[in-house]
């Protein structure tokens, strides 16, 4: 664990601010959460949740149809995975 560092609060607009030392390795612009637990303040980076909203995709490609269970069936066949043949043919 790293040694404790001391910093002093200061006024910034209508808020009280605290500078975090550069030696902590926190980049500028990182979104942080601050919470109070039993008289202590916990400061943590916000976990980035990468979510993709796909609700707007419906209807964008009307010609695309879902496969039916019958369309997903295929004939079983033995595959020839001989790499020497693949190199000669390709």
From TrEMBL:
<dbReference type="InterPro" id="IPR007159">
    <property type="entry name" value="SpoVT-AbrB_dom"/>
</dbReference>
<feature type="domain" description="SpoVT-AbrB">
    <location>
        <begin position="10"/>
        <end position="51"/>
    </location>
</feature>
<dbReference type="GO" id="GO:0003677">
    <property type="term" value="F:DNA binding"/>
</dbReference>
<protein>
    <submittedName>
        <fullName>AbrB/MazE/SpoVT family DNA-binding domain-containing protein</fullName>
    </submittedName>
</protein>
<keyword id="KW-0238">DNA-binding</keyword>
<dbReference type="InterPro" id="IPR037914">
    <property type="entry name" value="SpoVT-AbrB_sf"/>
</dbReference>
